[in-house]
Write a structure and sequence with these properties.
Radius of gyration: 14 Å
Shape: globular
Largest sheet: 7 strands, mixed
CATH class: Alpha Beta
Protein name: XdhC Rossmann domain-containing protein
Organism: Candidatus Falkowbacteria bacterium RIFOXYC2_FULL_48_21
Bound molecules: S-adenosylmethionine
C-alpha cells in the first residue's frame, strides 16, 4: 500500500514543473487516481492501464484505454507520466524520448525488460537515467512515504 496522497503530490509537482501543458498521457494508473487529480486541475488526460481497477467509462476530461504500454507507443500528448508504473517505467522513458516529449516517472519496483540484471534501487535509477540518452534528467523527491523519487525531463 503506497502513500494515499501520492497522486495528489505528483499532480501538484506536474502542474508546477510543466505549467504550459494541456494534455497528459498517464500510464499504469491502477485505480485511476492520478488521472482524476490531473483532470481536476484542468488537463486533458488519457490513461493506458493493463488491469484497470476503476469504473470503466470515460468521464469529463479523461479517456481510458485498457492495454499494455510499450516503447512502441506514439505519445501524442504534451507529457507522459507514471506513478509506480512497474514494467512500464522504462517503456515510458523510451517512448517519450522517441516521440521527443517531456516525461516524469516515480519508479518503484525493478520490473520489466530494462530491469534485468539491475540489483538495487540506486542501480535502477541509474539505468532509467541512461535510457534518456543525451537528455537532461532531473530529480526531485515528493513529500510522500515509500518510493518518492521523481525522474523527469522537461
Ligand atoms: C504498482 S501498481 C501502481 C498503480 C498506480 N500508479 C498507483 O500508484 O497506485 C502498477 C500498475 O502498473 C500497471 N502496469 C504495469 N506495466 C504496465 C504496462 N506496460 N502497461 C500498462 N499498465 C502497466 C499494472 O497493471 C498496475 O496497475
Amino acid at each position: 500500500m503506497g502513500d494515499t496522497h501520492r497522486n495528489q503530490h505528483f499532480a501538484s509537482f506536474i502542474k508546477k514543473q510543466f505549467p504550459k501543458i494541456k494534455s497528459v498521457l498517464v500510464v499504469a494508473d491502477g485505480k485511476g487516481g492520478l488521472a482524476r487529480e490531473l483532470a481536476r486541475q484542468g488537463l486533458t488526460v488519457r490513461v493506458i492501464e493493463a488491469k484497470p481497477r476503476f469504473k470503466w467509462h470515460d468521464r469529463y476530461g479523461i479517456k481510458y484505454q485498457r492495454g499494455w504500454f510499450t516503447r512502441e507507443h506514439k505519445v501524442t500528448e504534451d507529457l507522459i507520466v507514471g506513478m509506480h508504473p512497474d514494467e512500464a517505467t522504462a517503456e515510458i522513458i523510451i517512448a517519450a524520448t522517441a516521440s521527443r516529449k517531456p516525461w516524469a516517472v516515480v519508479p518503484c519496483c525493478l520490473k520489466g525488460e530494462a530491469a534485468k540484471g539491475v540489483l538495487c534501487f540506486k542501480g535502477w535509477l541509474n539505468k532509467l537515467r541512461s535510457l534518456a540518452r543525451n537528455q537532461t534528467v532531473l530529480e526531485w523527491q515528493l513529500p510522500i512515504s515509500g518510493k518518492n523519487v521523481v525522474l523527469y525531463h522537461k
